[in-house]
Design a protein that fits this description.
The protein contains three helices and two strands; from the N terminus they run H-E-E-H-H. It has about 130 residues and is mainly α. Strand 1 and strand 2 form a beta hairpin.
Length: about 130
Amino acid sequence: MLHSESQPLPRPEETGAGIDFNAIPAQEAPPTHRIHSESEPLPPPGENAFNESERPLNVQPVREGGVALEGREGLPEGKATFVDKAVGKTQKVVGKMTKNWDMHERGELREAGGKAAAAGEARAPHD
């Protein structure tokens, strides 16, 4: 036993443990992330990064419902598993951050319709 119950615990200043929060004043600390650049204006509310006529991967609505690559008809509706949803969400975020719209669109397809929809073998139930 390091100390008995009758002895008080040492304070952090006495042990040298802990974090010195006064080391860098908050005003002098470097920014942790970029919020918005004035050189990249935000799109108006309700608008996407692309117009409906020029979608990445030429994803088009289909008669059966949902969307498919190239607007292919007669495909089964894809079902996303938990892993598909996680991978799709990751692809969407990375695609948006890197402005890789093809990756973003594949992520949307995979998140909604699974791996088969992202590969063009099924339709995704979204849009």
